[in-house]
Design a protein that fits this description.
Strand order of the largest sheet of chain A: 2-1-4-7
Structural class of chain B: alpha/beta
Strand content of chain A: 35-45%
CATH topology of the largest domain in chain A: Immunoglobulin-like
Largest sheet of chain A: 4 strands, mixed
CATH architecture of chain B: 4-Layer Sandwich
Structural class of chain A: alpha/beta
Strand order of the largest sheet of chain B: 4-3-2-1-11-12
Helix content of chain A: 10-25%
Largest interface: A-B, 19 and 20 residues
Number of strands of chain B: 12
Distance between the termini of chain B: 27 Å
Oligomer: heterodimer
CATH superfamily of chain B: Metallo-dependent phosphatases
Number of strands of chain A: 9
CATH superfamily of the largest domain in chain A: Cupredoxins -  blue copper proteins
Order of helices and strands of chain A: HEEEEEEEEE
Shape of chain B: globular
Largest sheet of chain B: 6 strands, mixed
Helix content of chain B: 10-25%
CATH class of chain B: Alpha Beta
Order of helices and strands of chain B: HEEHEHEHHEEHEHEEEEE
Chain lengths: ~120, ~300
């Protein structure tokens, strides 16, 4: 009975370590989520360049000041429509450091192709 | 010999034109431009990205003349093409709805001078994305459709009227149903404006649901896709399906992802029409084999 209890306790301990380890993999649980507000209007984002920290969860909150725009960062695999008078959020955990281009992918007029920005993921 | 002369003359005349496409059904390559001698051979002309209404002289000082010269060049062909296909961005975009309609009608009036009986159109995002194709349809009609010509099945796919650069489920279902009517070895030519594949997603050179269209096309053995949008010649395969982008008639764009930022390449006074050009594609005896020749634009 005692040996069975010991086995269970050891197993539980290993499980706790595993769960804790998995939870911290790829994220920094001790750091608060990075929330960055970005406005979109013809034909720019503000700020167009944002810096986030690798492994720390990020929420990008977009607000459109005029019409429907898009946000698409193919290399990070994230996108959303940016609809006026609506909360437009993207959540992600940056897993790799570097500079990643994003652009408006909802055609918005002459200047649409200049509507771009960068996400810098720092170590 | 006469065929070669016709062909040389044709290429010379098309020195200011867009893409030139030859399709050869049954006959040998040398007869591609002489339909009188080989009954089922024909060629058509592809013009793309004319951006009528664009007016930056630093990019193209001949912004008002390039399209008209192309029309004159096509009209000068000794052997007229069976038809002409414009693959989108007929006009340059504008927020002003009246101006959009004016540009579309003005473009329509200019190309009405083409002496070729059959001229077909499809929209680009500059024509259709701001009003979901409303003004375009008033002037040119449907944005997606099919037609057949001498045994070749042409399918025009609209991936621009949805401003997200999508084909959409409704049109994909239509495409699936159109394809079901064809045998797996049917000759199929698809026209789109944007590339169906992810050429450069960070430059918006893609179709959001283009992979679904390619998946529908994959079971068919003899498919080729011609498109515009990127203002340069580009050839790429997705499986057995070749995709061929044509040059534009207003300004060139840089090679995919070759620069930090995509922007029209400014006019070079020392080399007018540099990076503008055209191509012809000749089908070989095998249905799915094409010979592609790229040729530069010359000052007309």
């Amino acid at each position: 009975m005692l040996r069975e209890f010991q086995r269970l306790a050891i197993g539980f301990g290993i499980a706790v370590i595993l769960v804790t380890g998995l939870a911290s993999f790829g994220t920094s649980a001790d750091q608060p989520e990075q929330v960055i507000k970005i406005t979109a209007k013809k034909f720019e984002y503000s700020p167009a360049e944002v810096t986030v920290k690798k492994g720390v969860p990020v929420t990008l909150e977009f607000t459109s000041l005029d019409r429907v725009h898009g946000f698409n960062c193919p290399d990070l695999g994230i996108r959303t429509d940016i609809v006026p008078e609506k909360a437009n959020r993207v959540h992600f955990v940056p897993q790799k450091a570097g500079t990643f281009e994003y652009h408006c992918d909802v055609f918005c007029g002459d200047g649409h192709e200049d509507m771009t920005g960068k996400i810098i993921v720092a170590e | 010999m006469k065929n070669s002369q016709d062909r040389r003359e044709f290429l010379k005349l098309m020195g200011i034109g867009g893409g030139v496409v030859f399709l050869s059904g049954l006959g040998p390559l040398a007869n591609a431009a002489t339909k009188k001698e080989v009954k089922n051979d024909f060629f058509f002309v592809q013009l793309s990205d004319t951006h009528w209404g664009f007016s930056d002289p630093k990019i193209n000082p001949d912004f008002g003349g390039t399209l008209k010269k192309a029309v004159a060049a096509v009209n000068s062909l000794s052997t007229p093409p069976d038809f002409i296909m414009f693959t989108g961005d007929l006009t340059h975009t504008t927020d002003d709805e009246k101006e959009r309609r004016r540009r579309l009608k003005e473009f329509h009036d200019i190309v009405a001078n083409l002496k070729v009986k059959t001229v077909r159109f499809m929209p680009g995002e500059h024509d259709a994305s701001l009003d979901k194709g409303a003004a375009y349809q008033e002037v040119f009609g449907k944005t997606h459709y099919t037609f057949t010509h001498k045994g070749v099945n042409f399918i025009v796919v609209d991936n621009v009227s949805d401003p997200t650069g999508s084909i959409g489920d409704t049109q994909l279902t239509w495409l699936e149903n159109e394809l079901k009517k064809l045998s797996k070895d049917a000759r199929i030519v698809v026209f789109t404006h944007r590339p169906l594949f992810d050429l450069a997603p960070t430059w918006d050179w893609a179709t959001r649901d283009g992979a679904k269209a390619i998946e529908l096309l994959m079971p068919y053995k003899n498919v080729v896709v011609f498109y515009g949008h990127i203002h340069q010649v580009h050839n790429q395969m997705t499986g057995h399906i070749p995709h061929h982008a044509a040059n534009g008639l207003m300004y060139p764009l840089p090679a995919p992802l070759s620069l930090p930022k995509k922007a029209p390449i400014p006019w070079d006074p020392a080399a007018p029409y540099k990076n503008l050009g055209f191509r012809d594609i000749e089908a070989k005896k095998k249905k799915d084999e094409y010979l592609i020749t790229e040729l530069p634009i010359k000052e007309g």
